[in-house]
């Protein structure tokens, strides 16, 4: 499984590609940051992020794209920029038919470090250890992108089993509600199709 992790940001959009399967050593294929100038127009910055994403998709051809799920913060401006960059990444992947998965920061931290409240330094240290790197990737956005990719590789098997179980449950439930061939479930149909009963005559006492 080859996953492109994206840590969305308008100024710095972290990207990292990891390959491997759950339970086995993982390999980093690339890591970096797509940058846009803070003084540029918003439309131009989004175009720059799109071009950067397209280059990474062209170079590595990932089978999945994992993007950090945007969550509410006090700084609305930061949230808006993150959401816009996230949308661009999802658009680029969807346009190529690549499945996109969203993971919250807590999910990523818990998957990589074992704690959903881990600090960025802890995440960087674990990413370095898991990918057998010489030093933590810089800046932190790049390390977070790798952590997203690792998280998806480890969580995907469990998510797939859950989705299969839900789909199987729905299929089984649907088959149980379907009437056997030739039998109608229309309310009142069975009663209406019956021949009317002849009223019984009550005999009085013999004379």
Structure description:
- The protein is an alpha/beta fold and 207 residues long.
- It contains six helices and five strands; from the N terminus they run βββαβαβαααα.
- It has a five-stranded mixed β-sheet with strand order 3-2-1-4-5.
- α1 (42-60) packs across α2 (76-95) and α3 crosses α5 (140-177).
- The longest helix has 38 residues, at 140-177.
- The radius of gyration is 28 Å and the shape is globular.
- The N and C termini lie far apart (96 Å).
What is shown here, in short?
The protein is built from six helices and five strands.
β-sheet strand percentage? 15-25%
What distance separates the N and C termini? 96 Å
Rg, alpha carbons: 28 Å
| Order of secondary-structure elements | EEEHEHEHHHH
Structural class by SSE content: alpha/beta
